[in-house]
UniProtKB/TrEMBL annotation:
PANTHER family: BLR8292 PROTEIN, PTHR36455. This is IS66 family insertion sequence element accessory protein TnpB. InterPro entries: Transposase_IS66_Orf2. It comes from Wenzhouxiangella limi.
Length: 121
């Protein structure tokens, strides 16, 4: 299986992508439109106009993987804006997106800063 670690980046291609595109066309889109290296072992995520289908392209060792996900009733959150500028996410944020959440709206707990330990007791 593919090992995804903290160095793996996730790039979302803004706007709609024709889901008839296969590996070669998506790799060309990564290189030409997103100005990124499709052989970088990072994840490149594409969504259709209806926002119910995703494709994820990744190079792993000696070939491409292409993952496809189709929702039956709901829609994915998807960024709008300049289609030549991908949105970078973490692996964790990608998981949120796949779970139906908007990664740009999620916030964790704020960091608590204390001047001394006695204030905690």
């Amino acid at each position: 299986m593919i090992a995804l670690d903290t160095h793996t980046k996730v790039y979302l291609a803004r706007g709609a992508t024709d889901m008839r595109c296969q590996i070669d066309e998506l790799a060309a889109r990564v290189a030409d439109v997103l100005q990124a290296d499709p052989l970088s072992s990072h994840l490149f995520v594409f969504c259709n106009r209806a926002r119910d289908k995703l494709k994820i392209l990744v190079w792993y060792r000696n070939g491409f993987w292409l993952w496809y996900r189709r929702l039956e009733q709901q829609r994915f959150w998807w960024p709008v804006g300049d289609q030549t500028q991908p949105l970078e996410l973490s692996i964790r944020e990608l998981q949120w997106l796949l779970d139906g959440l908007d990664p740009s709206q999620l916030q964790g707990h704020r960091t608590a800063l204390f001047s001394e330990i006695s204030s905690l007791i």
